Amino acid sequence: MNVVVCVKQIPDPAAPGALDPQSHTLVREGKLILDDSDAYGVEMGLQLAGDAGEVTLVSMAPNQEVSGVRTALAMGAAKAIVVSDPALKGSDALSTAKVLAKAIERVGADLILAATESTDGYTGTTPVQVAELLGLPSVTFAKKVTVSDGKVRVERQTEAGFDEVECPMPCLVTVTAGVVEPRYPSFKGIMAAKSKPVDQLTVADLGLDASSVGAAGARQEITSVAAAEARGGGDIVVDEGDAHERIVQFLEQLKLV
Amino acid sequence: MGLSSEDALSSEHGLSSEHVELVRTVRRFAVQEVAPVIGGYYQRGELPYPLLERMGAMGLFGLPFPEEYGGMGGDYLALCLALEELARVDSSLAITLEAGVGLGAMPIFRFGTEAQRLRWLPDLCTGRALGAFGLTEPGGGSDAGATRTTARREGDQWVIDGSKAFITNSGTAITSLVTVTAVTGRAEDGRPRISTIIVPAGTEGFSVAPGYSKVGWTASDTHELSFADCRVPADHLLGEEGRGYAQFLSILDEGRIAIAALSVGLAQGCIDECVAYVGEREAFGHKIGASQVLQFKLADMDARTHVARLAWRDAAARLLAGQPVKREAAIAKLVASDAAMVNAREATQIFGGAGFMNDTAVGRFYRDAKILEIGEGTSEVQRMLIARHLGLPVTT
Ligand SMILES: Cc1cc2nc3c(=O)[nH]c(=O)nc-3n(C[C@H](O)[C@H](O)[C@H](O)COP(=O)(O)OP(=O)(O)OC[C@H]3O[C@@H](n4cnc5c(N)ncnc54)[C@H](O)[C@@H]3O)c2cc1C
User: What is the CATH number of the domain that holds A58?
Assistant: First the structure.
C-alpha cells in the first residue's frame, strides 16, 4: 500500500517565535523542523505501508526547506515532494490545500495521512480541504487506524469517547497525537535519508496559477492580533477542615460532579 | 529548556550533517523520554529496561559497528555524541550505553574471530543483550597489569579462577557475556601473560554478587564477580593468548574519549538546569540570575564545558584519522571529568537546598560526577599517562 503523509516544517517551538507585523502570520525564515504532530502520521504511514508499500512525504515550505522532511525520511519514508515558491508567501489554509492536493495527485496514494492540526498554525482545516479538492472522503481525529479489504477502519476521537468509522480507500485520514508511538530515527536511517529522492517543485511545476495561491489567492485575512489574556493564578484552597466540601462545591459549580 | 537548542552544537565544526541530526535525535529522546521518568529509576536503584529497549530500537548500541553485525555503520564519534547528549540528562543510561558498546561489544569487534563476532555482536548491537568488561579486581584497578585472576588450559577448555570488582552491566537480565582479563602464564622474564576470555552469562562457576549500593549511577548495573573452576570452551579466548594487556590498553584509550564526552554531557546538563533556574528563582527582589556572582559562575561553567568538549572532539578526530590518541584521550578525560565535577558542585550551590535533593536533576548530577574522576582510569592515572609523553626522568 502506498501512503502519502502531509508534513509541515515549522519553526522550532522551543525557540521564541515572532509574527510578521504586516501579515500577522508566523515568521518562518531560518531553519525549520518537522512538526511533532506530523511524526504520528509518518509512523502510522510506515506501519500501514509495510514492507510492500512505501511512504511519500508531501510538504509545502519556504525556501526549499528540507530539514524537517529529512527527519521523516530518516524515520523510514521513501521519498518526498517539497513545494516552494515565492508566490506561496501569505498562503492561507485553502491555498496550502490546493498545493498539497496537486502534489499528492502526482504520487497516486491509497491513503493520505495528516495531523489533525499543525503546532504553529492550529487552523486544523487544511487536511479536509485537501480531501475535498481531490474529491476523496476524509475521516478526522483518528486515534486508531487499521486497513483491510480496501477499507480503513478508524476509531475517531469524540468528546464523549470514540466513533468506529469505516471508509473506502483512497481517502484521507487525520491522526491525533498518540495514535502510535513515533520511532526515533536510527543513525542508519539518518544516513540513508541523505540520499533519498526529494522532488523540489514550484507552483508552475504543479500547473497551478500563481494568482490562485499565496497572498493573492488567500480567502482569509488576519485583520488584527491580540495578546491572549494571561492565565490567572488559580484559587488555593487552604484546608481548615472543610477543604473537601469547598472542592466538591467548586466541582459542582462546573457541573463536573 | 530548548529541545533542539543549538547550544549542544556550539562546536559544530567537524560534524557531518548526519552527526548533527543524530545529536538532535538523541537530545529529543533524552528530553522527551528519559527526563520525565529517570528520577524514579534512580531513586529505586533500578535499571530502566524500557528505555534501554528504545535506545536499542534507535540503534544506539550499534552506532560504531558495521551493518553486517547488526550495527549502524557509524563511527566512534557518533557514539560519543550520543553519550554526551544522554548524559546531559542522565548518566546511568549513558554509562550503560558506554560500557555496553565501548567495553562490552568493542573488544569482540576489535579482537574477535569472525565466528565470535557473528555469535555475539548482533544481539549486542541491537540492545537485545548487554556486554560487560571485567578488568578491575578487588585487589586493584589502576595497576591492571597486576591481575590475579587466572585461566589455565585443560584439554579444550579454559578454567578460570579469581574475582572482579565493580563491573558495569555484568548482572542485568539481558547480560550475555563478560570478557575477563586473566593471567594465562608467565613470560620468560617472569612477567604475567594476560589474556582476555569471553565468559557467557550463566556459565557454571561464574557467580554474580548482588548489585553494589552506589553513591551515583544508581540506575546502572554494577556487580562483583567471582569465578571458581569456571570452564569455557577454548575458542572463547579473545584474540591471541598473552595479548590481553595490549588489548585493554587500546580499549581504555578509546573508552576515555567516551567517558570525556559523557562528562561534558553532565557538565552541560548542569548549565542547562542552572540557566533555567536562575531565570525563575527570586531573592532580595530580583531574579537570582541577575546577580553578577552567579553570572560569573555560569560563565566559568560554560567556558570549562566548552574547553572540555573541544578536548574530546579533538581526541575523537584523531582516533577516526587513525592517529595515536593516548595523550589526547587522557587529557580529554582529565579535563572533562574535572569540568563535570566542578560544574556539579557549582550547580548544586546555585540551586541551594533544592540542589541537595535527590529528586532534582542537579542532585543526581552531583552524585554522578565523582565517579567520572575514577572509572576507566583515575585522574592520577591520566596524569601519569600525560606525564609519560613529556620525556621526564624516571625513578631508577
Ligand atoms: C560504578 C563503577 C563502575 C565500574 N565499572 C567497571 C567496569 O565495567 N569494568 C572494570 O574493569 N572496572 C570498572 N570499574 C572500576 C574502576 O575502573 C576502578 O575503580 C578504577 O580504575 C580505580 O581502581 P581502584 O578502584 O582499584 O583504585 P586503586 O587502583 O586502588 O587506586 C586508589 C587510589 O590510588 C591512586 N593511585 C593508584 N596508583 C597510583 C600511582 N601509581 N600514582 C598515584 N596515584 C595512584 C588512584 O588514582 C586512586 O586515587 C568501575 C568502578 C565503579 C565505581
Answer: 3.40.50.620
